[in-house]
Design goal:
With 464 residues, the protein is mainly alpha-helical. It is built from 20 helices and no strands. The chain binds tryptophan.
Length: 464
Amino acid sequence: MAESRGQWSGRMGFILAATGSAIGLGNLWKFPYITHENHGGAFVLVYIAMVLLVGFPIMIAEVLVGRRTQLSPVSAFRKLGKDKPGGALWAGVGFLGVLAGFSILSYYSVVAGWTIHYTWLSLTGELNRLAADPAGLQTYFGGEFLANGSQQVMYHLLFMGLTTSAVYFGVKGGIEKVAKILMPMLLLILLILVVYSSTTSGFNEALRFLFKPDFSSLTTGSILEALGHAFFTLSLGMGAMLTYGSYIGKDISIPRAAFQISLFDTVIALMACLIMFSIINSSDIDVSKSSTILFTTIPTVFAQLPAASFFNAIFYLLIGFAALTSTISLLEVVSSYAIDDLGWTRKRATITMGSVIAVFGVLNALSLGGNDSLTNINLVGRESTAGVFGTMDYLASNWFLPVGGFLIALFVGWIMGARDTFEELEKGHGYFSGYKIWHFLIRFVAPLAVGAIIVSVILGREYQ
Ligand code: TRP
């Protein structure tokens, strides 16, 4: 069974693929945007606390369930829940994950497709030409670009094609291989951009903004937003980490791996902020509050700096790479369901699921044109923006992921039994001295915190 499902070649393969899943548009787009909106410093600290106290323990829980069962989410919960209270109903947590993967991927890949177009625009110099007029890109992005349905569909399909091919070639031969090539390149590009941004005049101000906390600027809303984001950015709540964890061997320490993945993800999100704030600060351009800043303000400011085309191009390439390793993990969750539960071959599963999601995504791609709420497109948004795109995003980030995460924490903390979880966490680790702390976090802190998100969503999200 394990043979036909595939396995990572080793620890590094797993860490890179999982980090690849975690690092994505969430880190490079959403995080800088919400950090800016929530006034920096104190928000960053709260976010780091949320990653440590809620995200990291849930990541351990997901990987643990995956490795214990060597199955993808639906079958994994069905198997572990069988003789427990709730029984086969727990398989529902897996189904929720498949549904979340399906809906997130169908819009994520549309946005991811934009990076291909923008890399191209940078290389041809067109982006600089548009950016010469301060309002140029705003007009281009909101008008021409999003309204061009066939172009939107084309880039979306291209991105889905790339995603599907990677998943098609399997755990080791596809997913891991892509991660092993793209993740080092991503890091290299980020380092180049951080060094570059340190030469800009806005760098010190960016550092101060990020690391000098002002706690008076914190609101309940920002705390919940930090928590919600910690969830999305670590790819939790829908069994992505569970699925990747089902391909690891017994020789790997789950707590250590989960810690490294969380750390890596956080460091990269902070690097992304440093780059973007330095760039924005070094110009007197009025920062647009819009979440589309990545495709409007950033290139506009870039254009005023030396070697704009080059840096713009590697910047969009970076975002594209980060997005691809994330879309791969989303498709893997959906495909592995078909493989483990429906008994399909990997080839059949990836092509079928990839195509169905691609077709669905076309609706998202086409719903962008003429949409007035476009400047508010809010990946993992709290508000439901109009159109299919907004609805999918709203459902996934406000309902599927939090509810999924809540149930995963409940299951691992309360249903699975301490003996099983303890035993699994010791494999590949040795005596796990942090077990008691982890168990407390997964039983009490994580469900309460994630429960708070769900309650706030039910109450109408009017906490800002
Ligand atoms: N973590 C990714 C990001 O930050 C998005 C993502 C990929 C994701 N796979 C996921 C989110 C699974 C939730 C669940 O962009």
